[in-house]
């Protein structure tokens, strides 16, 4: 199930006129693939993620999540879509201080009305996938920055989303830990078949991406196309 933006334009009010944050943007991320988005500050990267997350409706164009065109959907329908189909990883892991690591994950399923053993098992499986089994009963203040960001990623995957949107996940981490987080995201994208978009400032983290697109003044250009990588999504280094 993929993510598709077709001819998306987004403007914001700007004094008496409008500022074009996204200008006829096209993006297609297939399932199991990761597209990295780079670009200077203010170029439109966050706007692109906000539109892809259906948090902001574009002025024109279409956003398709897992095949469904979201144009004209009610707020309630979009909220449901986000809960069930879209995982979002923000820059800062906004974990709930009172909950343990395992509870941070389980609460995502509870929000969907799901309880019971299946939820516990899914959370445990994800914690294993991000190598945090030993930390399952800790609270956020008892974790390192890299561990918190891994909880953040596992939590975003808890409801098995089709689309995973990741905003600068490594900005608070040193280079080595940042590279480990991007490596983890790439592996989980392949394993879980998500259509993943990764916004990053760090060009050294692009090697794993299937496609690299650059945003400049709201326009998108492909700096490395899908298929330029060797093998099934393994980028040439
Ligand atoms: N809510 C808003 N109202 C008006 N203008 C906005 C709003 N949000 C963003 N902008 C403008 O839209 C343009 C794109 O902003 P955006 O936040 O998408 O850039 P970015 O590439 O994510 O930047 P950064 O790397 O600094 O986070 C900028 O010119 C910004 O000033």
UniProtKB/TrEMBL annotation:
Keywords: ATP-binding, Nucleotide-binding, Transport. It comes from Streptomyces tardus. GO terms for cellular component: plasma membrane. This is ABC transporter ATP-binding protein. Residues 3-235 form the ABC transporter domain. PROSITE patterns: ABC_TRANSPORTER_1, ABC_TRANSPORTER_2. PANTHER family: ABC TRANSPORTER RELATED, IMPORT ATP-BINDING PROTEIN. The lineage of its organism: Bacteria, Bacillati, Actinomycetota, Actinomycetes, Kitasatosporales. One of its GO terms (molecular function) is ATP hydrolysis activity.
């Amino acid at each position: 199930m993929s993510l598709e933006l077709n001819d998306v334009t987004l403007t914001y009010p700007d004094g008496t006129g409008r500022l074009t944050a996204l200008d006829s943007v096209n993006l297609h991320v297939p399932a199991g693939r990761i597209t990295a988005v780079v670009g200077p500050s203010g170029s439109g990267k966050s706007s692109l993620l906000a539109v892809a997350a259906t948090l902001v409706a574009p002025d024109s164009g279409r956003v398709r999540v897992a095949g469904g065109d979201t144009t004209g959907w009610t707020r309630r329908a979009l909220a449901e879509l986000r809960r069930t189909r879209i995982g979002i990883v923000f820059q800062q892991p906004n974990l709930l201080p009172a909950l343990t690591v395992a509870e941070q994950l389980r609460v995502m399923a509870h929000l969907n009305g799901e309880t019971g053993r299946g939820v516990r098992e899914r959370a445990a499986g994800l914690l294993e996938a991000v190598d945090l089994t030993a930390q399952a009963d800790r609270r956020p203040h008892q974790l390192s920055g890299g561990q918190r960001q891994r909880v953040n990623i596992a939590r975003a995957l808890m409801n098995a989303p089709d689309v995973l949107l990741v905003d600068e996940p490594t900005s608070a981490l040193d280079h080595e830990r940042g590279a480990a987080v991007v490596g983890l995201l790439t592996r989980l994208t392949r394993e879980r078949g998500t259509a993943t978009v990764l916004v990053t400032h760090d060009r050294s983290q692009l090697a794993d991406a299937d496609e690299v697109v650059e945003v400049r003044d709201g326009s998108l250009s492909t700096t490395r196309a899908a298929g330029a990588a060797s093998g099934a999504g393994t980028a040439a280094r």
